[in-house]
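Hello, quick one for you while I still have it in my head. No rush at all, and the record is pasted right below.
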Amino acid sequence: MATRRSAPAASTTLYFVLGAVLAVPFGVWQRLPGLAFSLGILVIGGLVEPAPVMTGRRVAGRAPLPADEREEHLIDSHRMWRDLRWRLVVPNRDWLPGWPVRLTWLLALTASWFALALPVTKPEYALLDALAAYILAVQIPASRRRSDHDCPGVRLDTFTAGLSWCSTAAIPLGLLAGVAGFIGPQMAHGRWPLVIPAVPVALTVPPLGLAGAAAGLYPTWSSAALTSWRTLVRQAALWRVRWEVLKVDPPPVLLSVSEVGQFVVETFTAPPQEGWAGMRPKSPKLAPLVGGGMSATIIPVLDEANGAPVPGTIHQGRFAVVTAPASLPPIPSLPRATADEVLVAARVAAERACVLLGFSPVVLSDPQPLHADDSETGAWRITGDWPEGPGWVTARSSGWPAEFSSALGVEAVADHRPDTGQILAGDLDDTDWADPASATKVEQIRFEDTWTHRWSAVVKSNVNPPVVAHSETRDITYKGVTIHRAVFQVRSGLNPVDHVNAKTESALKTAIQQVPFVSVTGYPARGGRAGIRHSQAFTVCYSTQAVPASPDRVSDEREGSRVILAAQVNAMFDAARLARPELTEANCLTATVSAFTVASIWRIGLRLYGGVTLADVQAGAERMRAHVGVPWLRVDDAPDGVTLYAGVRPEDGSVKSPRVRFDLARLDWDHAWLAAKVRGHAGLTPSLTAFEDVPTNPAVHVATFELPKGTSVPAIAKALPELRTATGNSFVEIDRERTDASTLVLLVSQHDPMPKSFPWTPDGVTERSNAIPLGVGVSGEPETWDLGNSPHLGVIGKSGSGKSATMTLAITGALLAGWDVVVVDPMKGGADFKFAEDFTLAFADDLASASATMRWVIKEVERRKNLNATHGAPSFADLPATIRPRRLVVVIDEFVSLVEKQGNVPRTPYADPEMEIERLAQVEANTFKDDIGSIAGRISKEARSAGVHLVVGAIKMRTTDLEKVPGGGTLKTSLARMLLGMTSLGDRASALNNADLAPSLDGTIGAGRGLYEPAVGLPRLIQTAFSPTNELAAMIAAVREPVDKVDTGPVARKSTTGTPLVQEVDVDTSWADTPIDLGDDIDLDALMAESAPSSNSESNSESNSESNSESNSNSESDSESDSESDSESNSNSDQFPPEDHMPDHTAPVIPVGTDADGVLVDWRLSSTPNLVVVAGDQERIEIIDRIVAAAVDGGAIIATVGCEFEGIEPARSADTVRDVAALSAWVSFTVAARRLLAAENSVATVGDLPDDLRPPRLFVVVDDLAALAAESEEMASAVTSILRTIRDDGRDCGIHLLAGVDSVIASSRGWISKVRPVLTAICGRLIAGVADPKALSLLRTNTHVAPLAGEALFEPLDGPVSIVLLDLGNGDDEMLVDLAVADGLDDPGSSPSVPATGAGDVFVTDSDLPSGSSFTAAPAAPDDDDDPFGLGWGATSQSEPDDADDWSLV
């Protein structure tokens, strides 16, 4: 059975109030203290008043809650009566006036004063009424306020706030109340004198007047004074509902409500079980409850001490809710925002940032404006504390300022350095600052925050990042480029050197958004020696713009230059794996050339760290140099470390003073002597004593050295190649004339000191002159053939060396000097000298006429000698002018081949008439040769005094060859020698009298370059001049008239037979069915130095080759010089093309890689016609594939040995010994065909052919050459036969060798004797991925730098070793070199059309073919389909090559 709730007890309040009111008139009537009775009644009522029963929601452990407003009023009434029951009798603070004074206290005084006027029988009763009136008037309103939501009441400080026009009612009400107080008691006493006694006016009028005035003021006064309280009551009611929705029980008590601008701040007392910490997480749930478009945030409240808030503290039992429109403007940036608005906005934003990052709350206070009064935007400084952590340092490093800025809506930066920390917020960019120091501080904080973020990506998370030193941080300018310099200090216990490394620089480049330049160096200690590092600081320099990467490109811009150089030095030391140094000085030793050209040399002083020594730096210098790409780097000792000299080569820079130039040269040579291992006793090296320019050739320097004991000139001569490499000078030679045992004089030039080609001029050539200028020497002065000390001249050189062109100069000079000339050239029919034929006394172009001419010359010699004897003259020059004969110059070309007799001529006549005719022809030819050789020998011995001089030309001139000629043994000693072109040591030894004292000729030698050794003197370098023969002919014609030829008939031998010589050889093709033997073991070292071929056929072949390569009479030449050549282009029919014009007009190139700056490095076919690639299998194949693809795309054709290429069909391929032998024959056929094509068009090389006739280039590709050479003797012989053909004729015929060698076996000696000599003689080198350093011996130049992964060493024949990067990116576009266009062909796939000449078949015998083989060659028809190899010739045979009976090129 349910228990019924008992009915609530009835309230007795009404009865006691009625009794208290009636007690007053009762007391007046009885003259008793009625007010005291009223006080007592109310006390009793308060004691007996029952508690109301609430019917609302029940809460465990607590009384039920009010169910409605009525019950709330009841509970409020009950609270008031319970408050009154003791406070009416017990003195308490409510009886005091309070401060500010309450209006109720004044009214209580008025009531007490009025109570004194009540009639009583005793004076004590009057005082008792006055006291009771005071207590009732004070306590009842106080208890009422306390029960009514703690109403504050009306106080005097709010008086002015309540004044309004309505307040004027207080005046009449006060007057009326005063009048009533005067009239009322008097009238009442007059009417009821016995009941109402007379009351003094002084006790009634003032109180009633004041009461009336207060009544008039109260409505407006209370409305203004209680607005906030009423708002509080209203909001409390709203929040009770909201807390109930949030299930917060008991609900927080609203303590205050304040409006700060658009913010409403409501302060609550937190429930005991929640506290501040429990209420904080409920902040996100408030926004939906406060209404749309509004935001609500719970923020902490300051704790209090003695009623005052304590900054930097948090009250754990209170909190505040801040509500505001969701779309507020950024308050701190508003110029008219108040400090309270800024503080509230900042507290809200701070709390949101803290909650987002999981931080304890920060307490902000004391906002101070930083902007000027007239600023259009605002900025503020706000103080803050973290009473519960984590503190400002952690907050800054964790990104709290950024989150705070986002929540606040304006930029804000935090400074942790003040004791309480500060936030600067507002429009920090455009604000007009009241104090400029504030703007500086903002920039510094920004800079710190930026670097804190950057360091977070660099240092470990458990390591404190470095701190910026603002006083040392600034910007530096270098040529318009801004370099930011920041100095950082590490925390205690950390080492700044830990940041001075490449890893930190790389990480910073990424952190600073991929800037191109970052440098980390030590910071100099104050007051110490230069280069001493600060123990706790380091420097970071960076730029968003690129800066020079090499010292030679750095201009002298003071501090900016020093920063860049420090970064470059650090990079150098990193590359050498050495600890980074510190700069002590940086001085530019060169003057500024122009604003657009930078060519600097720097002296950089360094203090070394990490145990690095001078020797370590010297050992790593080359890798340092290569890493930054500086052309020149030298290392010198210094007191505190080392000094680096880096930049352009001294010759390329404008050195400021001769002393500096000498110092640089001394460093250069000190380094060179050590690199070349030239040392004397005690390790001393030659000491530079003078360094001067040659006045006539500033490109050449004269370096004079004092030689220490233990060194010798021969040893230094052997070290010249190493000296060239070490100094970077392509030319270093000993000046033998000024060098002795104690003094060494070197001629030095960075580049070729002589021109590659220059026109000949007859300067100094007169009728009285004894010298003919032929070229220039190293000094820049003319080199002449001086007949006074060298009456005879021998010009020696292979095809393309410029031999014939030099002989044309001798002929021209002789004719211009008024001398007579005789030309003997049966080997080439005088083709090279046709330009002067009309001006010569004799022009012999066959053996018979040559014999007759020489016999005439010797007769002339005898005649002159007799003339001298008749007149008693020791020389023709001493004869009277009227009878003195002219000098006579006898020019004999191809002398050795000309005088070499045909061997094995039978002495016994043949019975067969035809054979006998042939035998007699051979005997007759040998007789003619005897005449020429023996007479030449006699002329060299006897003709000087007769004024007869020899100019002989030969491919080689060995003593053994000359000794076969009657009287020829004296030629070598009586001739001045000019050795031109590329020669071997054997060639030089055989051609020169003092070969061991001759300067070296390395690399690819251009036409006209060689050695000149006068009959009296030492060999020296010469570059002969070149002028087209038509120009030479014009010079001659301007001063000479054509002359009649001398009659040689009387002295000529009579022919023993009228039958011409037969040169056709029957074809023997038996080799096709039998193994091919290409000859005995081939010693290529001997082959490179051997003399003219021994057989007649070889002689003819060599002679024909020489003739074809040097004859260009009546031909058209349209050559262009190489892009790097100083030669001038000519298009003249008589031009002899210099070396850099051959074999092509445009010197095509094929890229092989890039240098450190990304510039393509090219294989230049004009200067390095052949290339050998040394690498591992995979890398080598990739390199060769790329080069072959580029060549084929450019219009070339290929023939392969031991390899194949995807998508490329070779013209010929070979794998077996038999195939290689057949390929060798095919290459020889190609050479012969192209030679014949050139000869028929009167040009020396196929490169000089017209565009429509020129055949494409042919690349013979031989992979794994070492393995092929080691396969068998037969294979080695077959391969070397191909190499020999390319060596002798490839350049002129557009045929190139591309060979591959495995780097693993490149250093083994098993293949060296087979192929290495010819490779080193004709091939450039590309060495990649070499595992065995011995393989570097393939290079002509000694080097200690091995290629790294992706690198290669590239050494062309005409240049030094350089490091190239093999990765060309995609490479397809860059590697396509249009060789066809370079060679003048419009269609790379088409064969040139050669018009038929009608010349018939031409029979050719090639010494490189199998013994007894021959072929027939003729021009192909334009539509000939039998031209599979693109040679411009049709190839026909009776069957395929494997079973061919005959070969012929038709």
Summary: Residues 1-6, 1058-1147, 1368-1450 have pLDDT under 50 and may be disordered.
